[in-house]
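Need residues for this backbone.
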């Protein structure tokens, strides 16, 4: 009998207790289920900083700054002292030190980086947050610490970076890694993982649109891509269990000046530390 092998890029699973509690809410009332899933959707998990990120954490100059438009405070990391600055944006349930290997390589190549813990992430206060908080954080950081030559975003950070560029962030180039794309697809996948009926996904979108008085699809990455003229490198893994490859391809297809780099068997997070990926980023940044 063949031995079972573990999947190193297995998707993060939602705890069974949360799934059961969602099902109970849905049985009682779809309205209750919608509010409950909205709360879960906007509540990131705060992970302990892994040992591999501690060096960047120690060597960074850290500040707490206020983001007026969302009335929230975030922690910012200054890494390196070069005037050639690159902004790093982590993904959902990530941290400002999560892209440390990329930051290290950028430092070796004469750049400094600014990163941050988004609201309700890492050392920043709060329990809940949404993508627009990421975007406003990026724009305020640009005002305080910019200008930046490049912005690099992972996952939700990639979506946020593209939306920030669309909304006025001035950079020469952008890199998005494992970026999500269509908001409704993200909601559909979330509801599927909670084992709820697809109808809840539509209700969830309507709930957010009513609460924040916005159209959720306006935040889809492909829509931002259509308005971006600068060179953008899209990096995505064919085996990403969190964000399907179609997201990266669709973003690339809507860019006027895009490049697409696909990898295999790196998943959603391992890709951030891969030396081939990092070299691709450095080469893209240095290219004319």
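Answer:
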């Amino acid at each position: 009998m063949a031995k079972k092998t573990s999947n190193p890029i297995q998707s993060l699973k939602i705890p069974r207790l949360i799934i059961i509690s969602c099902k109970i809410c849905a049985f009682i009332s779809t309205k209750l289920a919608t509010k409950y899933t909205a709360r879960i959707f906007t509540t990131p998990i705060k992970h302990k900083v892994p040992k591999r990120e501690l060096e960047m954490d120690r060597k960074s100059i850290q500040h707490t700054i206020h983001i007026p438009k969302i009335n929230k405070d975030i922690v910012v990391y200054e890494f390196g002292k070069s005037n050639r600055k690159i902004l790093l944006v982590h993904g959902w349930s990530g941290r400002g030190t999560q892209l440390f290997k990329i930051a290290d390589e950028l430092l070796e190549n004469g750049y400094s980086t600014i990163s941050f813990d988004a609201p309700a992430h890492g050392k920043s206060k709060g329990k809940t947050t949404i993508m627009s908080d990421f975007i406003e954080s990026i724009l305020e950081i640009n005002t305080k610490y910019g200008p930046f030559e490049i912005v690099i975003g992972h996952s939700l950070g990639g979506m946020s970076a593209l939306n920030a560029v669309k909304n006025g962030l001035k950079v020469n180039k952008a890199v998005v890694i494992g970026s999500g794309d269509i908001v409704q697809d993200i909601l559909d996948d979330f509801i599927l993982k909670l084992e709820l009926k697809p109808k809840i996904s539509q209700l969830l979108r309507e709930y957010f649109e009513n609460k924040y008085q916005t159209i959720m699809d306006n935040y889809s990455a492909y829509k931002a891509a259509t308005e971006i003229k600068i060179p953008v490198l899209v990096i995505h893994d064919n085996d990403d269990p969190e964000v399907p490859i179609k997201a990266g391809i669709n973003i690339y297809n809507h860019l006027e000046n895009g490049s697409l780099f696909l990898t295999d068997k790196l998943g959603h997070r391992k890709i951030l530390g891969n030396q081939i990926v990092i070299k691709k980023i450095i080469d893209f940044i240095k290219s004319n």
